[in-house]
């Protein structure tokens, strides 16, 4: 994986554990496949366009709960769940600043070691955007239990202030 334009990590104040890395784009290279990810957060009007559509998460985390970390960057296509489905899957609170994604049948999910990684979706104009950040989950790849992501659109104002020259 190659990262271009990485500058600094800026932490959000107010108790939120959100760190924003300023960058122009991310090039994920896997074999002969290259995907340019434009790190342009979608505005809130795009939220409804991503629900029930597939997004990609990538990382070097475990491939099974309790397993070893991956030596290679892996990616998996997973559907973004409706918020009500996400809330129903957990006894823990799921906030409006969260979104959930994973295979409904299990087996495809982010896992330990993937935290902080992206949940990428392709916009209707063909550009890729980071809609979520891997946050937490219970086990990995369990049927009916999605991974929980920080919803990027919930932090657009803060991102905009801290990335004025890159977004």
Automatic annotation (TrEMBL):
The keyword Isomerase does not apply. Keywords: Disulfide bond. Pfam families: Trypsin. It comes from Sipha flava. PANTHER family: ACROSIN-RELATED, HYALIN. This is Proclotting enzyme-like. One of its GO terms (biological process) is proteolysis. Residues 23-164 form the Peptidase S1 domain. One of its GO terms (molecular function) is serine-type endopeptidase activity.
């Amino acid at each position: 994986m190659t990262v271009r334009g990485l500058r600094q990590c800026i932490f959000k104040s107010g108790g939120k554990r959100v760190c924003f890395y300023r960058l122009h784009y991310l090039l994920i290279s896997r074999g002969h496949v290259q995907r340019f990810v434009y790190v342009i957060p979608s505005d809130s009007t795009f939220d409804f366009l991503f629900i029930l559509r597939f997004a990609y998460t990538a990382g070097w985390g475990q491939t099974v709960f309790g397993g070893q970390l991956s030596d290679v960057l892996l990616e998996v296509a997973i559907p973004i769940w409706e918020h009500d489905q996400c809330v129903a899957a957990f006894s823990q609170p799921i906030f409006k600043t969260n979104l959930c994604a994973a295979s409904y049948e299990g087996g495809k999910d982010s896992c330990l070691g993937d935290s902080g990684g992206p949940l990428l979706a392709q916009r209707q104009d063909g550009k890729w955007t980071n809609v979520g950040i891997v946050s937490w989950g219970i086990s990995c790849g369990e049927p009916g239990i999605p991974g929980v992501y920080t919803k990027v659109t919930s932090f657009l104002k803060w991102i905009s202030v801290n990335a004025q020259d890159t977004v």
